[in-house]
Structures are given as structure tokens and as C-alpha cells.
Amino acid sequence: MLSRALGAVGRFLITTGVVVLLFVAYQLWGTGFQEASAQNSLSDEFEELLAERGAAIDGTVVSTTVAPTTTSTTAPPDTTSSTVASSTTTTTTTTTIPFGALPVLDDELAERIYRANGEAIARIVIPAIDVRKVVVEGVKVEDLRNGPGHYKSTRIPGHKGNSGVAGHRTTYGAPFNRIDELLPGDEINVRTVQGFFTYRVMSAAEAFAPEIIGQLDYTVPEESKAGGHIIVQPADTWVLGDFGDDRLTLTACHPKLSAARRIIVAAELVSDPVLSSPPPPADYIAADSLATEDVDESEATGVVDEDEVVDEENDASGGVAQPAEPPPVSEAANIVADDLLDEGLNGERGALRPAILWGLAAIAVYVAFKELGRRWRMWPAIVLGIAPVVVLMALSFEKIDRFLPAG
């Protein structure tokens, strides 16, 4: 009796171990296949965006033509000449407008800049850590499964101000797996429908001035000051605030396989920023969090940045959106007060119940086919049952993965 009980316990432990190993394999490799497929589709989507922009992108040539005009003058009745005519010649002026200086206050371009969640908005290339990914809009769970995600409450890459991008470190292609290896001076190149932009990784001392860190009661460890990153808590949303410069902020979970903290890399824009851009739609900006690799689906509605709203009639710039002055240093901690560094990285609580249900379904099917094998023939039963069990396990794994904080 005891031997049978021990045998049952042994089989249970072995089965549990196999399932755990399968789940780990799914997280490390299965999610990577999903992300690779999504990136292929997003790459095509992004190329289409660039193609649609067409001639309005690099080195746009604008021709201004003054058409010929004729002026007629009627002489008094007692003169012999009744009409005197004169005409101007046709004049054409051709000017090549530098990229980024285009007058882009049009709805069509706005639709390509301010995208819906999950849609491609940029391509990011980080040579030092072999990253070349399409960036999607948003940092919800489903967004970060497809690639790095842009915090909608921060600036669009290439625009003036702080642009935030989050990514996974161990799952779903792990785009920011080696983010801790970035050093000051490393380049980060970003391509959007508005041009090419180059960023340079800053050291902690460069990126976060002592007065800002002091006001926030935050201390950068001495060993991190010369490196290209800092480690913060998920609640430290000040890293997404405006520091009075033009920068790109990369965020990811830290350490790997954990969502306990966030690793932050800040890079300054060393190429020219976008000089003008249409204002975002009123419903575009929503508060994101310092993304965690998976989180609750809820997303608070944000407010359009006032400095991007343009009064075309009274604006001295002729209807071109102009950035506002950066906020005082004391406001850096609160500028994204509604954001958390959790969105998309910390786990989706609502996924637990379906994960359990799919898991129970897989167990039920396994037991049913095992009983069929005992009453009929074992090998045919295994062959018939393996497919539905694998499918149900995959569905359960997918939900478990959404529930767990991603590392």
C-alpha cells in the first residue's frame, strides 16, 4: 500500500516537473516565436507607413510658381488708345526643405504619428546590444508582446522632450535583454515617419542632475554614476518627466526574471529634433505606467499636452506647434504622476482564472484519454490525445504568462 502511494507521489512530482519545464520552454522560446511573427507583420506595416509618406519625407522639394497676370487700363474716350496691357513673366522658385522642418499640420500625417495601441510607430536600432525592433504604440500587456512599446503620455521619438520606451528582458523576443550593457556614448538610432534621429546614451550623472535627484530623495549608487543605467522602483515615474532636454528613456524590469525594480537608460538626442508637428488627437494620450511586463488592462485617460495644441489663427509661428518651456526642476517628479512603471510588465491579474480553467481542461482530457488507453489500447489513445492536451496546455501557459510579472 505504501509503495503504491509513494509511486503515485513520484509520478505526480515527475509530471509536475515536466509541466514546469514545458512552461519555462514556452516562456523562453515560445513567446519569442510569437514576437518574431508579430515583428515581421509590424515591419511590413511600418514600411507601408513610410511609403505612404512618400515625397513628403526626406529632402522634400517645394516649387512656388507665380502665374502670369495681365493688367488692362482703359483710356479716356478722347484718346486713340483704348487699352494698355502689361503682363508678368512666370517665376518658379525651388527650395529643398530640410527634414523635420516640414509644415506638417495636417490630419493625414497626424494619423501616422499618433497611432492606436499595438500599431507600429518607429524602428529602434541599438548596435551595441544588437537590437533592431519595430516600436509599437502603448505599453499594455498585448502591446509589449509584439515588441518595445512607447509610453503614450511621453513625447513621440524625435520630438522635443522626453520619449519613453519599454521592453521585455527575457520573454517575447527580449528586446532589452542586454540593456544593462549599454555605456555612455553608445548610439541609439530611431526612425519614424518624420525622419531619422540619433540618441547618445548618457551616464547617470549626466542624465539626472544632482538637484533633481536631491529633490526627489533619490540617490544614484556611486558605482552606477559612470555606467549607462540606473535602477529605480516601479513608482519612480519621474524618470519619464521633462528634464529640460530632448531625450529617449528606455525602461525594463530588473533584475532579469523579476519585476521588483526597473532599469532605466537615458539617451540624449544629438541630431535635430522635429521642428514642427501636428497636435495629437484629444483622445490620444492616456496614462501609461513604468511598464512591468504585464499588468491590469485598465488605462487611465490622460490630457493632451497644452504645449502641443495650436491656435492657428493667433499663433505667431503660422500654425506650427511649438514646444513649451520645460517645467521647473521641482515638477519633474510629478509631471507624469498618473504613470507607473508597471504597465505591461507587472502581470495581468484577470488572467489567473482562465489559466486555471484551461489547465483543468487539459488535465481532464489527459485523464479521459488515459482511461481510454486502459480500456482500449494505450498507444493509439496517446496518439489521439496528445494534440488536444498540448493545445489546452498552450492556452493555459499563455494565460499564466499574462498573469505572472515578466522579467
Topology diagram in text:
Blueprint: H1 2-53, E1 60-66, E2 70-74, E3 83-87, E4 91-97, H2 107-113, E5 120-126, E6 131-137, H3 141-144, E7 149-150, E8 162-166, E9 187-192, E10 195-201, H4 204-207, H5 210-215, E11 230-232, E12 247-254, E13 261-269, H6 352-375, H7 378-403
Parallel strand pairs: 6-7, 8-12
Antiparallel strand pairs: 1-4, 2-3, 5-6, 5-9, 7-8, 9-10, 10-13, 11-13, 12-13
What does this protein look like?
With 407 residues, this protein is an alpha+beta fold. The protein folds into two domains: 36-53 and 105-331, Sortase (Sortase, Chain: A, Beta Barrel); 348-407. 30% of the residues lie in helices and 19% in strands. The chain is built from seven helices and 13 strands. It has helices at residues 2-53, 107-113, 141-144, 204-207, 210-215, 352-375, 378-403; strands spanning 60-66, 70-74, 83-87, 91-97, 120-126, 131-137, 149-150, 162-166, 187-192, 195-201, 230-232, 247-254, 261-269. The chain has an eight-stranded mixed β-barrel. Strand 2 (70-74) and strand 3 (83-87) form a beta hairpin. Helix 6 (352-375) packs antiparallel against helix 7 (378-403). The two termini are 44 Å apart. 36% of the residues are buried. Residues 55-67, 69-73, 79-105 and 295-339 have low confidence and may be disordered.
Task: Kindly report how far apart the N and C termini lie.
Answer: 44 Å
Helix content: 25-40%
- Return the CATH class of the largest domain: Mainly Beta
Parts with pLDDT < 50 across at least 5 consecutive residues: 55-67, 69-73, 79-105, 295-339
Provide the spatial order of strands within the biggest beta sheet. 5-6-7-8-12-13-10-9
**Which fold does the CATH topology of the largest domain refer to?**
Sortase, Chain: A
CATH architecture of the largest domain: Beta Barrel
- How many beta strands in the DSSP annotation? 13
Mean pLDDT: 75
